[in-house]
Fold each of these.
Amino acid sequence: MPDDSINFDKERVIFHIDLDAFYVEVERQNDPNLRGKAVVIGGTGPRGVVATASYEARKFGVHSAMATAVARRLCPTAIFMRGNHELYRNVSKKFMNILREYSPNVVPVSVDEAYLDMTGTERLYGEPIDAADTIRKAVRDALGLPASIGIGPSKLVAKVSSEHAKPDGVFQVRQQEAEAFFAPQPVRNLPGIGPKAGEALAKLQISTLGELATAPIGPLRRALGPNNAAHVQRRARGIDNAPLRERVKAKSISAETTFETDVSSRSELEKSLKKLCERVGTRLRKSGQRARGASIKLRYGDFTTITRQRTFQAPGDGDQLIYDTAHALLVTAMRQRGDAIRLIGVGVSGLGEQAAQLSLLDQNPMADSDTSEAIDTIRDRFGSESISRGSV
Ligand code: TTP
């Protein structure tokens, strides 16, 4: 069956549910004084970064991944708090369990976000819009948290719809409406179009999904990669036949940087290492998992590449843990070979939820992840990190 043949009669009913300002709303459950106020959660130190901001703070231009110092300038009256990741993880588990009462096919995508296949549930829950309200109410009643739901015939359309449902709403787009719904939206609204692809498209004067959908394929192949262009173009028209459960949870998460000129200064390498560790740490915490160990990758000027790996004493997800381990590996590697470095990378591996449970045996397993200076930096739409499967 060609990829873009769509049977309108047998449309699937996919929900994409996403909790609103997740960390903030969890904190508000604990402390009702925070309700209705501008609240910013993230690193509070000099290098801290915003993990999430309440909608009241967003009105002042505060957003995720912004330096906390900038957020303070934009919204000085906001309440700034560090996060409590253990708490968010526990709430996340309860949230997913509620969803499982409504569909046998629930696919979590991050701590506060999941896809549900609701196809054929009309007899039980009525029209999709009503089913969505029932689920939102169940989440609100059990956890006190506002959720938004996008409804579509595919994960893609449901996901893009949920952005329009926010905050605290429902938005449905049917397959025959999808192309027109997508057309005026900026290309970056298409999941999978990150900053780099966005820039490459801007160079081709392509700014909307409509323009992307009708652009000549040749230049697109050069901009997005030969195997990617046609696929992206179909998605830009709102076509997606991917099954709900295609994501295998990443077994490792890594990020790397290639320097413009080779670097031998230790302090410069440490600076890059720190940034990479924070990126990896953010992705790790967002996935709700913990790692058993960290690794580094170094490529020297002559292109020889080494990797070094070390297991943590106990599984963890904190920036400091990742950095300390990666740093020790870097120092040892530099002692063995002091040549200038062309590329530096950091990874965490052995990811899992059982890893998280094991670490409860540890004395103070949460201290690091709770107090990480830059609790959460940049998700992939903001940066160049990569998620890879298998060992790093
Ligand atoms: P999102 O679902 O992307 O955002 P949100 O829940 O804060 O707000 P909304 O969906 O209403 O726009 O992220 C879920 C949680 O993940 C968020 O509460 C905090 C965390 N997070 C980070 O730690 N760093 C980030 O850069 C982002 C985007 C989110």
Amino acid sequence: MALFVTIEGPEGSGKTTIGKKIVEKLIASGYEVIYTREPGGIEIAEQIRNVILDVKNTNMDPRTEALLYAASRRQHLIEKIVPALKDNKIIICDRFVDSSLAYQGHARKLGIDNVYEINKFAIDTLMPDLTLLFDIDPKLGLERINANKLREVNRLDLEQLEFHTLVREGFLKIQSREPNRIKIVDASKSIEEVFNAAYQLIEEAIRKFHENQRCIN
Ligand code: TYD
């Protein structure tokens, strides 16, 4: 079966930890699964990503940033996601187009629709079958990230907080537009609870996939 699942959410939402646990359980249940994240070890996508993240590039224009994310996404999609779907695998992808909509579109204020337009060119019609949105109060997310640093919240953290509040707002806005594809998972709960909620949603998507197959046959 070919199923394209993405996991979205801010830093500190636990999406990477849970994503890996989901993959382990799916494999143990006999599914063929690929776990990936942009740029996913794809050489061209890695090179593009290095340009985005290079600390020397402080004067990068937000539109340039959005275009580069979309370009890197395209290469990862063509080299990794499309072949895996053709091989009838389940793909669990940590971040995809919704990250660009929330970060560049909403938080960086380029406009969700504008950023969607350039991403449509990059991904064509290939949207995820299911997107898990790990939703968390940004304050709690930042606390989790800083947990082992044992220090007071400083001015920079507060700036980050404002940015991450916008990121969350962006994700929730996108979710309200596409509630059938994007399902909210309460990421403030324990790893076990978040994992169970996320896994249930994937099982539901697998069931739906088989129902659709029956209708086609
Ligand atoms: P990453 O290194 O994948 O870390 P994590 O997913 O664990 O937070 O993400 C790096 C940053 O890039 C993260 O702050 C989100 C941001 N990002 C965007 O702004 N737009 C995008 O399209 C993507 C994929 C990521």
